[in-house]
Amino acid sequence: MSNGEESGAGGAGRWQAADAAGRRAGSGEPVTRWVEETRRYRRPLGGWWWLALLLVPAVLALLGGALGGDEPSAATPKSWATTMGSGTASSASAPSGETSAASSSGGQSSAASGDAAACSTLEDRIGEALAATKITFSRGGSVVSEASMPVLESVAGMVKACPDARLTITGYTDPSGDEAENQQISEARATAVLDQLAKDGVPQGSMSAVGKGEKDQIAGGTEANRRVEITVG
């Protein structure tokens, strides 16, 4: 006889003894009925459901291993770490990018301020250049001399650095000769200077030429009054 059967037999014997004791005690039928009603709950340990209880977890564990259930959980932290690493690197590199952008912006602002300051003194610098090297022409004509080409090229460089500048080129003559003829010569000389500056790269639309003949004479005699002045407006 198996242990389960012995336990069942022993349990049945105990319940029968309790039944007999109940009868001797005078309780009789109620005790017997209670014993019969609860008999199905007093089954001995053992049976197929114990085996199922042990096998089901083992089968689930085998299925999990066969499907590689441990690999995703191992790879997931690595992927997360890689993503976090990339995010950290991007975050770390952001300040340097912002610093470079700020430096570039600051450099551009400084350059713009420098250009604005230079352009505000453009007329004075042109006047100084023309005072140091006077623009001269052929005698009685309007052809710019070769000696005057370098100073006009220098003036063109100053003007091109200030694209918003507008030039007025005014030609003058000495008072000798016919007044009407002097007026024409002054206009032609102003136009000749404008054309040369245009050849040196100054936009022609940003310049205008005016002739005033023998008007507005200055000290210095004949040579001083054969002149061209450039003003910035």
Keywords:
single chain; 233 residues; mainly alpha; 60s Ribosomal Protein L30, Chain: A; 2 domains; 8 helices; 3 strands; 64% helix; rod-shaped; disordered N terminus
Describe the sheet with the most strands. Answer: 3 strands, mixed
CATH superfamily of the largest domain: OmpA-like domain
Q: What's the number of helices?
A: 8
**Under the CATH scheme, which class of the largest domain?**
Alpha Beta
Strand pairing plus helix content: what structural class? mainly alpha
Query: What is the name of the CATH architecture of the largest domain?
Result: 2-Layer Sandwich
Contiguous low-pLDDT stretches (5 residues minimum) are 1-9, 70-85, 87-92
Strand order of the largest sheet: 2-1-3
SSE topology string: HHHHHHEHEHE
**Cα gyration radius (Å):** 56 Å
Percentage of residues in strands: 5-15%
Domain unit count: 2
User: What would the principal axes of the Cα set say about the shape?
Assistant: rod-shaped
Mean pLDDT: 75
Share in helix:
55-70%
Strand tally is 3
Annotated CATH topology of the largest domain: 60s Ribosomal Protein L30, Chain: A
Characterize the quaternary organization of these chains.
Answer: single chain
Determine the N-to-C terminus distance.
Answer: 126 Å
